[in-house]
TrEMBL record:
Keywords linked to the UniProt accession: Signal
Species of origin: Spongiibacter thalassae
Signal peptide range in chain numbering: 1-29
Listed name of the protein: Porin domain-containing protein
Superkingdom classification of source: Bacteria
Organism ancestry: Bacteria, Pseudomonadati, Pseudomonadota, Gammaproteobacteria, Cellvibrionales
Length: 388
């Protein structure tokens, strides 16, 4: 019996029933006792030339589906519990399995009109850049695909970056013109799923890995919103280590990968325009099977402009640049140009389309292109999203 397949089909069937019910009787949340329930679903169609992205997109692919349901329980004035289940199908990088995306208890130790301090315990969302915490919801991300240069979307690393098992401290300070916030996440060791190992190392080396784990990840973010959010600024950092137990016909070895980096984020909002830019730099060092002490610096930058024709219709344009080795830019760099439209006929529905031109292989999933990748890719994508 294919339990995984049955589970995935089950959650998708449930999501379809929820969507059908919403068409008949739209609601913005379901209330079950003291628990408030929300959810979302999105489905894309992808057509590309040059390389595949999320399935056999050179022939047309629908292998980009996101389904999620989350709940929130306010136990009392200081304690809140929240969690989310998600199923994400993204070609060979994500297999659609149902996962606990996050599940944590939030305790507010101090709260006033001007300041607050709290702790979250459990599987918490990592604050990293403007969009990591809400990257699965089409309504809240900047385009159909996350900016590849900063969020490593096409590399299949979402599971490593999105959440951590551990404790998160957060605080905020408010005044009339400014809101400042701080978040620090300290995670504990946890195993890395085999599909993520394959996304990191490739199928050839992943088959030799007997065990992989993530060691004590640490994330932090300091941000501020000025003039009611007209200008937003943030600095995010990460420090993670990955450990692989590798067995080959000739040797048994351990390999470690240490990554330390930051993201600077800025956004300026006007009545009809929004301008956003983020820059990331991550230093990666390897020890073990391949080499000892070798390292590279991964660098990424994007700038996006969004124009709102009406409150329901907007257009956006984004340019991205990334390199997987800052010291060898000419050999490892990639760039992308994104042009897109978004239409929100009502607050629960969105239809988005993007046209993307890629030079290089940054953000192109290697596991979707086992025959090798080309240097040029053009992508046409359409995605429909719903939330309640």
């Amino acid at each position: 019996m294919n339990l995984h397949g049955n589970t995935v089909r089950g959650i998708r069937t449930a999501a379809a029933l929820i969507l059908a019910a919403a068409l008949v009787s739209p609601v913005y949340a379901y209330q079950v006792g003291d628990v408030q329930i929300h959810g979302f679903a999105s489905q894309a169609y992808l057509l590309s030339d040059g390389n595949n992205i999320y399935g056999d997109s050179q022939r047309g692919s629908t292998e980009f589906t996101e389904l999620g349901i989350n709940g929130n329980w306010q136990a009392n004035s200081k304690l809140n519990v929240a969690g989310q289940l998600i199923s994400r199908d993204a070609g060979a990088t994500d297999n659609g399995a149902v996962k606990v995306d996050y599940l944590f208890a939030d305790y507010k130790a101090i709260e006033s009109d001007e300041t607050g301090l709290g702790f979250r315990f459990g599987r918490v969302r990592n604050a990293f850049g403007f969009y990591n915490e809400t990257r699965d919801i089409l309504f809240t991300r900047p385009s159909i695909f996350m900016p590849q240069a900063v969020y490593f979307e096409g590399n299949g690393l979402r599971e490593l970056l999105f959440s951590s098992d551990g404790v998160q401290l957060y605080s905020y300070w408010d005044n009339d013109d400014q809101n400042t916030y701080l978040s620090i996440t300290m995670g504990r060791d946890k195993s890395i799923p085999r599909d993520v190992v394959r996304n990191i190392l490739g199928p050839r080396f992943a088959s030799a890995v007997r065990y992989a784990r993530q060691l004590n990840p640490v994330y932090s973010q300091l941000g501020t919103n000025l003039n009611g959010g007209k200008t937003r600024l943030a600095l995010s950092t990460l420090a993670i280590a990955l450990e692989f137990d590798i067995h080959t016909p000739t040797a048994v070895s351990e390999m470690t990968l240490d990554a330390n980096g930051f993201v600077t984020s800025i956004q300026h909002n006007l009545q009809q325009w929004s301008f956003t830019s983020e820059y990331s730099q991550v230093s990666v060092k390897y020890n073990g099977l391949f080499s000892s002490g070798a390292g590279i610096t991964v660098e990424g930058l994007y700038a996006q402009a969004q124009y709102r024709f009406t409150p329901r219709v907007s257009a956006h344009s984004r340019i991205e640049y990334s390199t997987y080795d800052r010291d060898n830019r000419n050999e490892q760099d990639s760039s992308q140009l994104v042009l897109g439209l978004r239409w929100t006929p009502d607050p629960q529905w969105i239809i988005a389309t993007d046209i993307i031109g890629v030079r290089g292989t940054g953000g192109i999933p290697g596991v979707d292109n086992p025959q090798g990748t080309n240097e040029r890719t053009e992508i046409f994508s359409v995605m429909v999203g719903y939330r309640f």
